[in-house]
Structures are given as structure tokens and as C-alpha cells.
Amino acid sequence: MAELMNRDEFRTALENAIKGKSANMSPFSIAWASGKLSREHLARWAENHYHYVGPFADYLGYLYARMPEQYTDAKDFLLANMYEEEIGGDRHTDLLIRFAEACGTTRERVIDPDNMSPTTRALQSWCYCVAMREDPIVAVAGLVVGLESQVPSIYRKQTPTLRDKYGFTDEEVEFFDLHIVSDEIHGERGYQIVLEHADTVELQQRCLRICEIGAEMRLLYTTALYNDYVKNEISLEELELAA
Questions:
Q1: What's the confidence (pLDDT) of residue 241?
Q2: What is the dihedral of CA 117, 114, 81, 84, to 10 degrees?
Q3: N or C: the chain end with fewer CB closer than 10 Å?
Q4: Are 120 and 48 spatial neighbours (Cβ–Cβ below 8 Å)?
Q5: How many Cα neighbours within 13 Å face the side chain of 224?
Q6: How far apart are alpha carbons 223 and 22 in whole angstroms?
Q7: Going by C-beta distance under 8 Å and a sequence separation of 6 or more, which residues neighbour residue 106?
Q8: Which one, of 27, 40, 60, 16, lies nearest residue 215 by Cα?
Q9: pLDDT 10s per residue in the chain (243 long)?
Q10: What is the pLDDT of residue 103?
């Protein structure tokens, strides 16, 4: 039977729940980091990614409304995160659309929900479900620790290739540079909120499980981008992956 973990034990367990399920492992991410994708492939990514991250402030807003009033640290973090996404400088979705247009697609195509894949729609729906229905601390674990904390490690592998291989300008890849920094901060704050407030065995176990599910959802979403848009042009063998 599980026992209540101290903060160090719980932190390690949260990290292990995500380990081995990073979206970096997907063939789409490997093809990107190695410079094998075309700008057209990257455009399809942007058209999908908009519908996952575009509503992120909405997810946090639902969560903010349900967070217990006494958890002021968590409420302040959620509010600050929403502010950064929407009005704390350039709106993050506008930066994503700027990159998408540099890849050859249009704002109209990016914002059209008919251009996202079924798997992207599933990830978006899962995020809304978690934000609206899960225990608020469990939801922070899923959305911030399980999903958002992964972003810096993913973009650190992909962003140099965007400049060196594809020739994008600093302005065109600002979306990625911004999130390498901001999501590292957000991810760490998410960890601290979960470590502080998941104070029962049940809450700790639920947080561990939802982190695992969140990592699996992002890996599935990223793998689906390869299956939907790339596999007929770049084989797994070319990526030196087992079929």
C-alpha cells in the first residue's frame, strides 16, 4: 500500500512519471530536430499546435475559478500565467501564427479548427476536461507538470535547427525562444504547488497518474503528426527508429 511521500520523494516520483514519455521521443520530433521536415510539415504542426496551446489561458481560467481561495500561491501563479499568455507582451498565439506564416500557411488556416487532426482535438478536449473536472491540484499536476514542464527540453532540441537548417529569423522563432524560458519557470512553479498541496496519499497518487497520462497524451499527439503528415515522405528507417 502506498505511503505519504516527503517532498524529495514525491518530486522524484513526479519526474519519473514523465520520464520515458517525452514528446522528444516521437518520430515527428526526431525528424524536426534532425532537420528532415519540410516547411510544409512545420506548417501542419503550427496549424495543429495552435488548437492545443491556443486555449491554454482558458484551461487555466477554469482551473483558477475552482482553486480553493486559501491556496493563494496557486491562484497567483495561474493568474500570472494567463496574463503572460494573453496580454503580458506579445500574445503567444500571435507569435505562433507569425511562425506559421513563415512556414507558408496563413492565419486563416491556423485558426480554422477543421485543420487540426482528430488526435489534436482529443488532446485539447482532455485539457478542458482536466481543467474543469479534476481536483484543482491534480489538474495543476496534469496541465503544468505533465505537459507544460516538458516544453523547454523539447524546444531546446528543435529551435537551433529552425535557425541553422531552415534559416528562420530570430523574429520568426520568437515563440520558441519565449517558451524555453517561460515554461521552465512555469513548470517549476507547478511542481512547487503540487509538492505543497498534494498532502494526502490519495492526492499524491492521483497527481502521479495524471502526470503520466499528460505525458502520454502529448507523446501521442506528436506521434500522430508524423502519422498524419510525414510518414509517406520520411520512413521510420530514415529516422533510424525501429518500425
A1: 57
A2: 120
A3: N
A4: yes
A5: 16
A6: 11
A7: 100
A8: 16
A9: 689 999 999 999 999 999 888 898 899 999 999 999 999 999 999 999 999 999 999 999 999 999 999 999 999 999 998 888 777 667 889 999 999 999 999 999 999 999 999 999 999 999 999 999 999 999 999 999 999 888 888 899 999 999 999 999 999 999 999 888 877 888 899 999 999 999 999 999 999 999 999 999 999 999 999 999 999 999 999 887 533
A10: 98
Residue for cell digits 531552415?
166
Cα 94 from Cα 86, distance rounded (Å): 9
Across 97-119, b (16+ Cβ under 10 Å) vs e yields bbbbbbbebeeebbeeeebbbeb
Burial status of residue 8 (CB atoms within 10 A of its CB: 0-12, 13-18, 19 or more) = exposed
Q: Which cell numbers hold the place of 3?
A: 505511503
Residues 6+ apart with CB under 8 A from 56: 85, 92, 127
Cell of 160: 537551433
Q: Which residues fall within 8 angstroms of residue 240, CB to CB, at 6 or more apart?
A: none
Q: What is the DSSP letter of 49?
A: H
Tell the burial category of 239 from Cβ atoms under 10 Å away from its Cβ (0-12, 13-18, 19+).
middle
CA distance 2 to 63: 28
pLDDT given for residue 187 in this prediction: 84
2: which 3 cell numbers? 502506498
C-alpha cell at 64: 483558477
Look at the block and give the residue holding cell 516547411. 39
Only one residue has cell 508524423, namely 226
